[in-house]
């Protein structure tokens, strides 16, 4: 009887007839069988339930409302294999723990994955419908689907080896018919995100999506409707609270619709004043809740608005100075936005840096043959080297970093393309860091630049730079020196030195 009860405990679904036959076994055979059964049972318990791919047709999580299997089956954790590796799912240049100029690569980079492009990107463009529907998507934007995407996000981060992510409030949780409903949806998804990110992962930054909903057609902080302004303020308030709760290091403002289509129906001065008051309120609320992260403004010249008020780094810096906000904000520079404003990414980074405003970089690029914001992964080693020269001069970006605000091409539709694109972007910036370090350690480029300005390394030059040389003094020196001799800029030599490091 004891034997029967033991078997019934180990194998509760065992048929009675089979159980009775086992009880009749000879003692030796029985105990051998029991030992084998115990080994199999405890092995199954220790291994846990089998994984299965995260597609909507699988049985994983059926009836639970939440899928908990593996989203990227067959894709291992991405490792560094070195430049000679031919493995597309391995780093060739990004070695997280390797020290460059006294700092680990991971600390120079502080990479982040953009939730919206990676998990909400559809492949659609102004001329074509969506091309992507990942296996785990069910075609809805329900709370259950939002939670499923969040689980996919953290599996992706873990396998890629990245410990930061960025989000818009409405990308990670569905909107609601009321602000209260939208906030409740966000709270539910954020609770899961908090659980999944643990202690090692945190948002690089969070933000509120103030451009998609029709209510924001005229802008948010610059809308002529007070009700819209108030709704935007409430949405930012909640997004800041959520970012703070998740341990976010920064908070971003992107004014995609903060601008105008025509000045004929726009009071630009009043709209700029309203935007400044909005930012002042954000600063006050940040301090009230004890959020120590950096507030960032992301410049962009146009698209979707004809003219956006944060056109480029210089325009944004001027706005912050005019309204006394220069010490409260830094800039999140996006390389593709620099292209649209008629600048290079290097120019925008340097403009932000010399104004003490370089806070974060959205690592992407555009296509010179396409006139819109294509948000491509940065794969140009030359551009990456210029980017890293600015980052090194800035002594890094912390508490900012590099956010991959980049999306797969419309024609790239395989799940592993998500990994390949991020690996390529990370490797490109790692090569840029290595090249920039090589240029700095060689010193030839710095020497060339210093030599161009050596005439200011004199007594009168120092007076000029200190603001102590008046026009009368300079006139006397000009007469004393006679016609100036202007040396060569050595541009081709500078380009040769730069290219030799690539």
UniProtKB/TrEMBL annotation:
Enzyme Commission (EC) number: 5.3.1.5
InterPro entries in the cross-refs: Xyl_isomerase-like_sf, Xylose_isom_bac, Xylose_isomerase
Presence of keyword Isomerase: yes
GO MF annotation terms: metal ion binding; xylose isomerase activity
Organism of derivation: Ilex paraguariensis (yerba mate)
A GO BP entry: D-xylose metabolic process
Record-stated family: Belongs to the xylose isomerase family.
UniProt enzyme class: isomerase
Record bears the keyword Kinase: no
Catalysis performed (reactions): alpha-D-xylose = alpha-D-xylulofuranose
Protein name as it appears in the record: Xylose isomerase
PANTHER family xref list: PTHR48408, XYLOSE ISOMERASE
Keyword terms: Carbohydrate metabolism, Isomerase, Metal-binding, Xylose metabolism
């Amino acid at each position: 009887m004891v034997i029967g009860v033991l078997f019934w405990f180990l194998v509760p679904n065992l048929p009675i007839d089979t159980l009775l036959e086992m009880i009749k076994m000879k003692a030796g055979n029985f105990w051998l069988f029991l030992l084998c059964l115990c080994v199999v049972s405890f092995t199954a318990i220790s291994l846990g339930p089998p994984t299965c791919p995260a597609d909507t047709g699988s049985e994983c999580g059926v009836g639970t409302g939440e899928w908990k299997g593996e989203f990227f089956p067959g894709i291992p954790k991405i490792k560094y294999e070195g430049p000679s590796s031919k493995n597309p799912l391995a780093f060739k240049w990004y070695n997280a723990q390797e020290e460059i100029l006294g700092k680990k690569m991971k600390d120079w980079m502080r990479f982040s994955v953009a939730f919206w492009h990676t998990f909400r990107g559809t492949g659609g463009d102004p001329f074509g419908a969506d091309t992507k529907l990942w296996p785990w998507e069910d075609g809805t934007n329900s709370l259950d689907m939002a939670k499923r995407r969040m689980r996919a996000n953290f599996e992706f981060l873990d396998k890629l080896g990245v410990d930061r992510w960025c989000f818009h409030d409405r990308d990670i949780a569905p909107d609601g018919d009321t602000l209260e409903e939208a906030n409740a949806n966000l709270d539910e998804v954020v609770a899961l995100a908090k659980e999944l990110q643990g202690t090692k992962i945190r948002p690089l930054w969070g933000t509120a999506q103030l451009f998609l909903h029709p209510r924001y057609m005229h802008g948010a902080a610059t809308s002529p409707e007070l009700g819209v302004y108030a709704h935007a303020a409430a949405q930012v308030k909640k997004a800041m609270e959520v970012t703070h709760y998740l341990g976010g290091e920064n908070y971003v403002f992107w004014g995609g619709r903060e601008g105008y289509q025509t000045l004929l129906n726009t009071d630009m001065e009043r709209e700029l004043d309203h935007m400044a008051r909005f930012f002042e309120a954000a600063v006050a609320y940040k301090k009230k809740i004890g959020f120590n992260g950096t507030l960032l403004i992301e410049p962009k010249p146009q698209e979707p608005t004809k003219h956006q008020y944060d056109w480029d780094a210089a325009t944004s810096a001027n706005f912050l100075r005019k309204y006394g906000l220069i010490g409260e904000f830094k800039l999140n520079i996006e390389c593709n936005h620099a292209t649209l404003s008629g600048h290079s990414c290097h120019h925008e980074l340097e403009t932000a840096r010399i104004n003490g405003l370089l806070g974060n970089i959205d690592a992407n690029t555009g296509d010179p043959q396409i006139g819109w914001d294509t948000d491509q992964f940065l794969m140009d080693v030359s551009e990456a080297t210029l980017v890293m020269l600015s980052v090194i001069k800035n002594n890094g970006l912390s508490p900012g970093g590099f956010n991959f605000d980049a999306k797969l091409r419309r024609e790239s539709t395989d799940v592993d393309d998500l990994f390949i694109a991020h690996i390529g972007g990370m490797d490109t910036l790692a090569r840029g860091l290595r090249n920039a370090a090589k240029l700095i350690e060689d010193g030839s480029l710095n020497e060339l630049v210093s030599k161009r300005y050596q005439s200011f390394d004199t007594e009168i030059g120092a007076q000029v730079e200190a603001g102590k040389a008046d026009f009368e003094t300079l006139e006397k020196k000009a007469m004393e020196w006679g016609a100036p001799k202007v040396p060569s800029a050595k541009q081709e030599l500078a380009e040769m030195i730069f290219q030799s490091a690539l």
